Amino acid sequence: MSVSRHLRTRVLRAAAVGVALALAGSACAPSTDGGGEDGDGDVTLTVWSWRPEDAEGYERIFAAFEERNPGVTVEFRGYQNSEYPAILQTGLTQSSGGPDVVQLKPFGPIQSFIGAEQLVPLDDEVDLAAWPEEIVAAARGRDDGRLYGVPFAFQTLGVMYNEELFAEHGLEPPTTWQEMTEAAETLRDADVIPFATAGRDPWVLAILRETMGATRAGGGEFAEEVLAGRTDFTDPDYTASLRTVADLEPYLPEDVTAVGYTDAQTLFTSGRAAMYPGGSYELAPFATAAPDLEIGYFDAPPAPDAVVDTPLTPGFADGSYGVNAASPHRAEAVALVEWMATEEFGRAFAEELRQIPAVPGVAPADPLLAEMRGNYEEHGTPYMMSVYFGYGEPLGRDAEGQALADMLLGRSTEEEAGARIQREISAWFEPTG
């Protein structure tokens, strides 16, 4: 069945319900006055996102949906990432003027909206049975197991590097930790910052720990041990992974704990820093900021005394798109997120936004993204602080990032940092064993 036929079915179903309510004398049917419907009966769906930089890409993506569904216009509204959670919290409580479709953070952050019944359950609306559960889990309710969003991207973590700077200094992508630190020494001696990162933002430091230290802790196998209660974050292998990353401080930007996220991005795109440990989601904004920048990629080599002897590519399902339960255009909004589960959307998403789509079977044409995805398929590991420990307060990534920041400032040892992380996460996490 085509998307437009699905939409017609949903609209007719919604209309029938509306007629029944009217005949019953109901006074609580939602009004569509000023809610995105013009005088001709056309509908405008508003889609809220934390990525304003994707606006032009989504305009082209949604044009295909609009063509298939005459009378429906999709309006993308992007807000700053740091401001988005509060804006979304307010928007979903509004009886009018709020969004129809919302971009939702994965795993933990979506749960409060589910608990408040602000999202439409999608189990009977969207068929994701063929999708990997590691992706679908990002949009499920933790308590009820129901589906509340359609995941849009899968992200991998690794080290991006400036190919021109590497060539200028006679460097090759490192295959061992020693080669990587020797390259960092060469760059630092040439007044080039080896690694750009943002120590002011805990979530970025958690990305750094996972990217550079997953091999030392043991990747997904360590996470499974914690989940089962057989170890915790005071484990010597885990605390050693914190120390491994803190020991890279001489190769990070000066006063790294004062460096913000956008500052770190600029250090890399301006050529002041040669390497950037981060996610595949960085490629599109890097290309926008520096179209001529030639970017290469490598997995961080196994750290000293690593538990595993091969590189690991951490990865995680990114956010999803859900439907606002208060939307006056629920049928059309559901049809839109249903379309977001199709290969047509997945291909357009990969092409327009230069990201790895979540839709199964859609491989990114971009060679760098294809390499990142291929590395995950070959030796991937879940980004544990998002996938497994991203459900409480504080989020695992924030607890880890804050503790690592204190280490970089010389305020704590790795053992103290591990104990702090364990204490904060155990405030809401209970092992299954």
TrEMBL record:
UniProtKB keywords: Periplasm, Signal, Transport
UniProt record, GO biological process: transmembrane transport
One GO CC term on file: cell envelope
Record-linked InterPro entries: Bact_solute-bd_prot1 (IPR050490), SBP (IPR006059), SBP_1_CS (IPR006061)
Domain of life: Bacteria
Keyword S-adenosyl-L-methionine among UniProt keywords: no
Keyword hit for Heme: no
Signal peptide positions (record): 1-29
Subcellular location: Cell envelope
Pfam families cross-referenced by the UniProt entry: SBP_bac_1
Gene3D superfamilies: Periplasmic binding protein-like II (3.40.190.10)
UniProt-listed SUPFAM superfamilies: Periplasmic binding protein-like II (SSF53850)
Family: Belongs to the bacterial solute-binding protein 1 family.
The protein's name in its UniProt record: Sugar ABC transporter sugar-binding protein
Organism encoding this protein: Marinitenerispora sediminis
Lineage: Bacteria, Bacillati, Actinomycetota, Actinomycetes, Streptosporangiales
